[in-house]
Amino acid sequence: MAVQPVRLFGDPVLRTPADPVTSFDDRLARIVEDLMDTVHHEEGAGLAAPQIGLSTRVFVYNCGGRSGHLVNPSWKPLGEEMIEENEGCLSIPGAAQPTERHARVEARGFDIHGEPVRLACEGILARAVQHETDHLDGVLFLQRLTPERRRAAMATIRNSSWFGSAAISGDTVYDSLADAMAVR
After folding, report:
1. What is the pTM of this model?
2. Residue 112 and residue 82: Cα distance in Å, rounded?
3. Among 142, 120, 119, residue whose Cα is nearest residue 131
4. Beta bridge partners of 118
5. 182 Cβ partners below 8 Å, 6+ apart?
6. Beta strands in 103-177 (DSSP E)
7. DSSP string, 158-175
8. Do residues 7 and 52 make contact, with C-beta atoms less than 8 angstroms apart?
9. Pairing mode of beta strands 46-48, 172-174
10. Percent helix, strand and coil across the chain, each rounded to 5?
11. Coil, helix or strand for 151?
12. 87 with 66: CB under 8 angstroms?
């Protein structure tokens, strides 16, 4: 449907747990479509509804050769192996840092029709599932960093051109979300 502006670090919606989906209707289908359009436009691995300003427990993914969405997701680790790789976030541009995550996970949730979905994930898709579910819980990847890496990421954020802005779409940083919404 439409590419939406991505909310940036500092926006309270990113630190607020999202509301569970209770209606599997046309509104949900439009949200998923907007999320997919936006994640493709931004060339991201995943995107959660709070990142476009919606308190809705749904995310999309487009990585590891797979593309899709999960509504009301949960996940559990498959095994004990952890992996540390550079991780970034569309809501925190330029502040990627090595972040430890489970190497393999099983994700469960629903599709837009309310049908159960179960995914066995590894690699970047496992990382995306964990990262996007964190967004739905109001958790940013910065909270998963060691104190030293968090300080480095925060220094990058404070020195960025976008810090203090409400939204970003493509390479354009908007001073207010109203400006971003007007550009559709």
Report:
1. 0.90
2. 31
3. 142
4. 108
5. none
6. 104-110, 116-122, 167-169, 172-174
7. HTSSSTT-SEEETTEEES
8. yes
9. unpaired
10. 35, 30, 35
11. helix
12. no
Q: And the tokens for 77?
A: 């680790």
Q: Which two tokens stand for residue 125?
A: 């898709």
**Catalytic sites, residue numbers:** 132
The identity of residue 184, as a single letter, is R
Of residues 85, 21, 32, 29, the one with CA closest to residue 61: 32
Bridge partners (DSSP) of residue 108 are 74, 118
Which DSSP state fits 20? P
- Which tokens hold the place of 149? 């890496």
Amino acid at 132: E
pLDDT one digit per residue (tens) for the chain, 184 residues? 699 999 999 999 999 999 999 999 999 999 999 999 999 999 999 999 999 999 999 999 999 899 999 999 999 999 999 999 999 999 999 999 999 999 999 999 999 999 999 999 999 999 999 999 999 999 999 999 999 999 999 999 999 998 887 776 666 666 654 444 333 3
